[in-house]
Amino acid sequence: MRFFGICFFLLMFVSSGLADDGYDSRAFPRPLIIEYPQNNEFQLKESLEEIRLHCTSWRFAAEANNLNPWKTIPPECAGYIEEYMTGRGYHYDLERVSKEAQIFANSVKLGDDGRDIWVFDVDETLLSNLPYYARHGFGLEIFDHAEFDKWVEEGIAPAINSSLELYRDVLKLGIKVFFLTGRRETHRNVTVENLIKVGFEYWEKLILRSSEDHEKQATVYKSEKRDEMVKEGYRILGNSGDQWSDLLGSSIATRSFKLPNPMYYIP
Amino acid sequence: MRFFGICFFLLMFVSSGLADDGYDSRAFPRPLIIEYPQNNEFQLKESLEEIRLHCTSWRFAAEANNLNPWKTIPPECAGYIEEYMTGRGYHYDLERVSKEAQIFANSVKLGDDGRDIWVFDVDETLLSNLPYYARHGFGLEIFDHAEFDKWVEEGIAPAINSSLELYRDVLKLGIKVFFLTGRRETHRNVTVENLIKVGFEYWEKLILRSSEDHEKQATVYKSEKRDEMVKEGYRILGNSGDQWSDLLGSSIATRSFKLPNPMYYIP
Q1: Are the Cβ atoms of A61 and B93 closer than 8 angstroms?
Q2: Mutate which of B10, B57, B91, B242 to disrupt the A interface (most A C-beta within 10 Å)?
Q3: Has residue A28 got a pLDDT over 90?
Q4: Is residue B65 scored above 60 in pLDDT?
Q5: Which of A29, A149, A229, B213 could serve as a FRET partner for A1 with CA atoms 20 to 30 Å apart?
Q6: Do B99 and B153 sit in the same domain of this protein?
Q7: Where does the signal peptide begin and end (chains A, B) (predicted)?
Q8: Which of A10, A50, A57, A256 to probe the B interface (max B CBs under 10 A)?
């Protein structure tokens, strides 16, 4: 039993080190662990299991839109979220959403009037701000508009590759694409440049927040814009976004695809 | 490195045994594992990690409503889902949804006309069919209406305790409750008896599928019933259900709460 306790203890701490063919001896010298008193070892195992359970559950609740509005990730989940975002978990989840969306897109019979469209959000949907959030605790810090704007203005956000694949597939099928973002009109040029640079070179419309939309909740602003699309005769087949406020409200798409994002919440 | 490989291997297989202060020696005699060739050991570790990643991702996609319609769980995730449903994960997630719903319910200012309501689904929301699904592979088998009906007619489904807490809290606040289920009218009596027996003793209305609703998709049937509630002047504050078809469509609640259910999907 003691053997298993030690194993678990070690694995929880050095899981990142496994890939590098070793563990971080600076953080935890091996002899110290092997000689750890049994009671503490069990308590630690218990609490590590508890944190993993707790943070997985929190992440599920976030993705299923069950959480009341939140401003930062739970502090005790900082390590868990970092591991998820920088490890394989996040990319694996992104790829799955993209694949499911592609299956759906390929299954739809399009009209011959060119009015079938797909709506994409931009941040954490087409473009990744992970380099920014990596410097800001992966959601542990309260969102700083001014700091984030500086990052946006650099125009160097990389593409989310799985979304690029979906985007290309959707275009190839003859579905028109609309980009609908919470970014402001003042960021139009830098957003256009950034999008084109990383492979999103064509769109039917890129909609940014104009001054009269600044104070609106994202759900309201995005619903109004989708209402306009529907009024113009477009049929919204698919909608991809990392926030539920990208997807819910009025003029909901036939299928909505929620990309993972456990770092921040926009109501 | 070999030590970690062995640890991981053992932990994946004997995690259930840990609680019993040992591992199942019938399934995997210890000497066999210790002497396992290193290459196979790594391959196995890799594939176990892969399955865990894959099935967690699948479960997330299901809970976020990203999956195309599915009839059974992925066969390779059978063990993962069983562990989730019978271990602490499922109950932990259920409790979190209930708590978030309670926070929301307690934050709402009610009207003084008694028209504020909360809608609850029944199966896997108020009542648990886990004893049935435990006998049927936790979603691994294709749904068998006749078999499931027999189970329903026994009238012995236990309460989901976290939902019982939410239900009691909601009633205490003065919010009326509606039960809206996909069960048929022919099961009204047994459903009433089952609900009362496990603590759900009061409701404003219990709505079951009448014969004209049999062929409708759940989303359509439930939306129509919610439309009627709204027409009668009720305000749907909350809606709790384990299926997205309980929550989406028209007359959506102010807040919808998606209870976990990785075992089956109802469109």
Answers
A1: yes
A2: B57
A3: no
A4: yes
A5: A29
A6: yes
A7: 1-19
A8: A57
Alpha carbons B211 and B224: distance in angstroms, whole number? 15
Indicate if the pLDDT at residue B119 is higher than 80. Answer: yes
pLDDT of residue B224: 98
Q: Could you tell me the pLDDT band of residue A25, with boundaries at 50, 70 and 90?
A: very low
Same domain, B10 and B114: no
Least CA distance to B57: which residue of chain A? A93
| Partner-chain contact A54 B92, CB within 8 Å | yes
How many CB pairs lie under 8 A apart between chains A and B?
101
Reported as a pLDDT band with limits 50, 70 and 90, residue A36 is: low
Within this chain, do residues B130 and B232 fall inside the same structural domain, yes or no? Answer: yes
pLDDT score, position A49: 85
A100 and A19 in one domain?
no
- Looking at the structure, tell me whether residues A52 and A98 fall in a common domain: no
Task: Check CB contact under 8 Å for A103 and B68.
Answer: yes
pLDDT at B19 over 60: no
What's the complex ipTM? Answer: 0.83
Is residue A153 in some structural domain? yes
Structural domain harbouring B6: 2-63
Percent of chain B with pLDDT over 70: 86
Q: pLDDT tens-digit profile of A126-141?
A: 999 999 999 999 999 9
Residue of A nearest to B90 (CA): A57
Average pLDDT over residues A34-63: 83
| Inside any domain, residue A83 | no
pLDDT of residue A249: 96
Nearest to A97 among B6, B66, B257 (CB): B66
Structurally, how many domains does chain B consist of? Answer: 2
CB of A200 closer than 8 Å to CB of A228 = no
Does B203 map to a domain? Answer: yes
Q: What is the CATH number of the domain that holds B119?
A: 3.40.50.1000
Residue A69 in any domain: the answer is no
CA distance B217 to chain A (A): 15
Find the residue in A nearest to B84 (Cα): A53
A25 and A113 housed in the same domain: no
Q: Which residues of A touch B93 (CB under 8 A)?
A: 57, 60-61
Residue A158 and residue A198 in contact, taking contact as beta carbons nearer than 8 Å:
yes
Task: Tell me, yes or no, whether B14 and B133 share the same domain.
Answer: no
Question: Does B156 lie in the same domain as B46?
Answer: no
Q: Under an 8 Å CB criterion, which residues of A touch B?
A: 1, 4, 7-8, 10-11, 14, 18, 21-23, 53-54, 56-61, 63-68, 88-89, 92-93, 96-97, 100-101, 103-104, 107, 256-258, 260
